[in-house]
Amino acid sequence: MAVHVNPAWKRFGAETKRRRAASGLTQTMLQGKAGISASMLSAIENGSRAPKRDHAELLDVALSTGGALVRLWLDINDSVDVPEWWRDIGLLEREAVELREYQMTLIPGLLQTRDYAHTAMRLGRRWDPADTIERDVEARLARWNTLRADAVLWFVVDEYAFTRVVRDIQLMREQLDQVLGLVDSGSVELQVIPQPRPMHPGMSGPLRLLDFVGRSPVALAEHLVGEEVIDTPDSVRRCRTLFGALQAEALSPTESTRMIRELRKDYE
User: Is there a contact between 207 and 227 (Cβ–Cβ < 8 Å)?
Assistant: First the structure.
């Protein structure tokens, strides 16, 4: 399988490799010194995976760069060619200590595979050229690596999102495998609202809630061409109440995982 190089992170990888070589270290030596897995370090250097800020910090310490790689990491995150509204929301996500999200028809963006994200964007945005879709897919995939390492991620998703076939059976099998892997690793908590269900509080559309340290929480409401930031206290409170109502409609995390495993069998 060909390695997919992310142009936005090729620069970071090249700089990491240059500084490693200047320090007289092999990848194996740097891996042990920085505490980063061999596969991750290799992927960072060849630009096929976006590093988290934690990785940049560990590499800075191991290579005694004085913070150069963290500064480069921040520069790349701030300059990636994505819509301005998406970049602003990305900055909020980066600072969030807790992120809760409800989705009705699609797997949440943070949990999507590349193929799922590409197919969903292409079908939903037929007016956009291929290079714009590819750019936004890269930005969506990079979001995970910009989150705080200690961020709590909690998702509520309608069962329909797991049974609606996006492109083909193989894609859905890979997508459900990715979701189950994230749940099993403890990276996320996920609840499923089973079908059939009567009208419930989430029929108004996708919703996200972000909590921070030292600043007020915000809510995010998606629409066709972007996402609106909601920061007035009364409106945020209503959104939080709505999310709580959605959790009450959903199965428990354990029951939800069991359901997804059963749905996964339909894609064999």
Answer: no
